[in-house]
Amino acid sequence: MDDTMDKLATPSPGETVLSMANQELIQENRVLREQMRSFLKQAHDNQAIMSRHQNFNLELIGASSFRELIETIFSTLASSSDLDVVSLTLIDRQNNLRGILQDLSFELSDFPRLMFVANEAELALPADTREKPALGLYSAQKHASFFSTCPKKPMSIALVPLFKQNRLIGCLNLGSFNATRFSDNMATDFIQQMGFIIATCLENVINHERLTYIGLTDPLTNVSNRRNVERRMLEEIARARRQQYSIACMYLDIDFFKQVNDQYGHQSGDDVLKEVASRIKAELRLSDTLGRFGGEEFVVLLVNTDLQAAAQVAERIRLSIASTPFFLSMSGVCNSTISIGIAALSENENHGDADAIAAELLWKADRALYDAKEQGRNRVCLSK
Fold first, then answer.
1. Positions marked active-site
2. pLDDT, average across residues 302-317
């Protein structure tokens, strides 16, 4: 009886093989299910990444100003691509773009990771980046300039050249604290496409800003026109009120300008106007505003400046104009002088309606200019 029970309890060789096969199938099935779950998760993650990048592209395309586009690049791109560092270097020949942005009240200090270089040589991209982005480990010797304003340097980087119509306009600099994030054997099609979209959007908004700038610029002297000065004055009053500092306003008028036109001709008068504007601008900071108010009159707004500091700037302007003759394009030279009136708005006075404050500030500077004319011209007078 016991022998019979042992035989029943002991599986036959065939049953043993079948049991092992079942175990293998179960294990294989478990592995397949794990792989399937991993594939589904990867597909889900990829879909989420693609969705984020599509949203990023839509934000890029929808940006209507340079500020909006730069904010999208630095914030949305970093989050959508899980990047630790994003910076942008633009080629800005002769400071043209920076000058326009400054005149349009774009504060460059708000974007420390936005950098500018004068030309392609200064950009110093690796030689093979014209064909594709440069990916790999960060090297202080090779890549420091692209991440110079980033406190913590990345471990791996991608330098994405930005081309528009085969013209290099800058470089998008991507960095990760993960050394394996960007390797030199990675495919770059996706990054190249992103670079093309960003380059196109940059070119579009820069052209838009240029058109805006043209509409706010005096075509002869290439400084702000009256409309832009009045707009900037309201902006500076509001900013000075928030940040609690003084601003000053200069009203400037070229002395005996009609005699220049009568004696030398209107072309020579234009030469004097352009040179006067250039000499005034040379004494100002980038944060200040210079505008032609009409005829031979100019207005200057000085930020974070009191009356005495403004007087020192005005005296430098007066000397620069009076001490050096003006060379005329037609022939000869002429001398000229300028009269300047100054008024200031202290932080304690900056309250109430901004339009009324701006009008009063300008009126006070104009009255001071009148005093300068009455006292013999070629002088600086302060508002009483």
1. 296
2. 96
